[in-house]
Design brief:
Blueprint (H helix, E strand, L loop, with lengths): L31 H4 L17 H13 L21 H7 L2 H4 L11 H18 L3 E3 L5 H18 L7 E5 L5 H8 L3 E5 L9 H7 L4 E7 L11 H10 L3 E6 L11 H4 L3 E4 L1 H4 L14 E3 L11 E5 L2 E5 L16 H37 L15 E4 L1 H4 L5 H9 L7 E2 L8 E4 L7 H20 L1 H5 L12 H6 L8
Parallel strand pairs: 2-3, 2-4, 4-5, 5-6
Antiparallel strand pairs: 1-7, 6-7, 8-9, 10-12, 11-12
Helix pairs in contact: 3-12, 5-12, 6-7, 12-15
Length: 485
């Protein structure tokens, strides 16, 4: 909080002022001392600010204006697909029949919700080319872990417990090796070649009888489509391993290519990315997992199934890895994804890919004159620049990101993926207009010129934000988490 916009709420406090009113109690008053053990009761009242209702409203409204969101500005985070959340999705998710359900209701009283989840599974099966889908995982990384646990259960059921290693390319999402470790596997890194794709020679070197799976992000975090996917599938399957598809970048291939047709055995999706659930700030998310037929017996239970005209929760799954989330997944995000898929239709989903790829390539080509382009080839939905040229002038990628704040833009992802020096990863998504892209491009060009002509302007940014340049190491190690007088 900062005084230039609004006095700190504690400093606005005046004794006796009240910002709320409560109705008279319509139940007998209870002695708190009889309900709560003495050791848990305060000896002194909590030190809370005393302010009027108008002051508290203005305070929180001022704070809300400091947040950057998709409804307020361009959000080009590479690898995160921060695109517009259609308001029709929000309206549908707030319908009483969806929003006011209780997860312990009898199946007969929630047939509409079960039908929606079953239909969503069917749509996702068609989109991915998989044979069955579970909606239980709560987010992308949770879906990764679930998929790996399914692969582990499959190998163990086949008496192949020696498969303890998961191969992860250096161009994969950062959660992949973490998920593999949490699932009990050892992670083996496979290198990228000079074209930014998986090095097949290195893959052949690391694959073997101890390979449980290859986790592949496709398109990868460089925004490049893995051209040799069929040969990669042959290499891994030939060694007895499984192919895992990180589907976080699915908006780059919707209706154009399906993981199931490429040879993948397991796929996770990020409904909050590709299918427009509100995304950011730690959630909410939804990370459904699709599998090929031989892994269906191991899916988390209960499985949403159809018995005649009735929708049921099937718990009779003796080989299941068990429940991976309380109840049946993040239902509200599933509703939003379903509304999006049904409103877009097959033609609309195809156009998602076409515009995502068009926008990314347009921006990449215009900016390549002013920033280094590590991989000079067509990208998919996102692309990677390098700030090496600016670094030679004393301006780091971090400085460029800070300077963007002065122009009202949320910066793109920086310093990831790790195999590009001074990395700048930009994803415009398919929902932004050409005018928005052009405006952002012009600001990026302006910053590049500032780095050449007056680098200290960029080095000392930002200037217009509530909080200026932080000591990031100190902020990470010793964060200030509460107000102190």
């Amino acid at each position: 909080m900062h005084k230039q916009d609004q006095a700190l709420i504690f400093e606005s406090s005046k004794p006796g002022r009240i910002g709320y009113s409560l109705p008279e109690m319509d139940i007998p008053e209870v002695n708190v001392n009889e309900l709560i053990p003495q050791g848990y009761l305060r000896e002194e009242p909590a030190e809370l600010p005393e302010v009027s209702e108008l002051d508290i409203i203005r305070h929180y409204t001022a704070l809300s204006k400091r947040n950057h969101g998709l409804d307020s500005g361009f959000y080009p985070l590479g690898s995160c697909t921060m695109k517009y959340n259609p308001k029709i999705n929000e309206s549908v998710a707030r319908l009483n029949g969806f929003a006011h359900l209780h997860p312990l209701q009898d199946e007969s009283s929630v047939q509409g919700a079960l039908e929606l989840m079953y239909d969503l599974q069917e749509h996702l099966k068609e989109i991915t080319g998989m044979d069955e889908v579970t909606l239980q995982p709560a987010a992308g990384a949770h879906g990764e872990w679930t998929g790996l646990m399914l692969i582990r259960a499959f190998h163990e059921a086949n008496g192949d417990a020696a498969r303890t290693k998961v191969i992860v390319p250096d161009s994969a999402h950062g959660t992949n090796p973490a998920s593999a470790s949490v699932a009990g596997f050892e992670t083996i890194t496979v290198k990228s070649n000079d074209r930014g794709l998986v090095d097949l020679a290195d893959l052949k070197r690391v694959v073997g009888g101890d390979t449980a799976a290859l986790m592949l992000t496709n398109p990868n975090t460089l925004g490049l489509f893995e051209e040799n996917i069929v040969e990669m599938a042959e290499i891994v399957h030939g060694a007895g391993g499984k192919l895992y598809y990180d589907g976080a970048n699915l908006n780059a291939v919707l209706s154009k290519a399906r993981p199931g047709d490429m040879g993948f055995d397991v796929v996770h999706l990020n409904l909050h990315k590709t299918f427009t659930g509100p995304h950011g700030g730690g959630g909410p998310g939804s990370g459904p997992v699709g599998v090929k037929a031989e892994l269906i017996p191991f899916l988390p239970k209960p499985v949403i199934a159809k018995n005649g005209e009735e929708y049921i929760l099937d718990y009779n799954r003796p080989q299941s890895i068990g429940r991976v989330k309380p109840y049946y997944g993040n239902f509200g995000i599933n509703v939003r994804a379903y509304a999006y898929i049904r409103s877009m239709g097959a033609i609309g989903l195809k156009s998602v890919t076409e515009y995502a790829v068009l926008n990314a390539n347009y921006m990449m080509r215009r900016l390549s004159e002013h920033y280094d382009l590590p991989f000079d080839k067509h990208c998919k939905h996102e692309f990677v620049l390098s700030g090496r040229r600016q670094k030679k002038l004393g301006v780091r990628t971090l400085d460029i990101a800070k300077r963007l704040l002065d122009f009202g833009y949320h910066p793109p992802t920086i310093y990831f993926p790790l195999n590009v020096e001074e990395c700048i990863m930009i994803e415009p998504t398919e929902t932004e207009s050409k005018e928005t892209l052009d405006a952002f491009i012009e600001v990026m060009i302006k910053i590049a010129k500032e780095a050449e002509e007056c680098p200290e302007i960029v080095q000392e940014a930002p200037y217009t934000t509530v909080v200026g340049r932080l000591d990031e190491a100190l902020a990470a190690r010793k964060p200030v988490l509460r107000y102190q007088k």
